[in-house]
Design goal:
The chain is mostly helical. The protein is built from six helices and no strands. The structure holds zinc ion.
Length: 145
Amino acid sequence: MTRTGTPVPDPAPFAERLRGHREAVAHAIAAFRAESSEAMRERDLSDLLDDEPGVDHDAERSLLLAEHAERRLREIDDALNRIDRGTYGVCLDCGATIRRSRLRALPATARCLICSKEAARRASLDRSASTAGAFALVPELSGRR
Ligand SMILES: [Zn+2]
């Protein structure tokens, strides 16, 4: 950290929203996990029957969505931990104050806009297009509500 930002002085409304998101994401994970094991079962069956193409893809998509949702859940838990520690609203990378408007739009964000763009650039180098595509189908996972 190079700078000392100011944490959000009144994080209670953010904590409330994050807990709401957490519940939605936890539900989504359970649903995707159920979908993927259902699709796996169907695949086992279709291996026997050999007549149902595309089931593999369903299983994979559900699994990707579940993994993405689990990452979201960790981000939300990390944000709630920062609230507990009194560091919520300070950029994890550079230590700058994260703008309040940014926190309102993305309450789970750990970084200021500049560091977030840099982190996204690094992540996009190894993120598959299929994950990004699946991600776009589930608005509650994007954090933009
Ligand atoms: Zn930063």
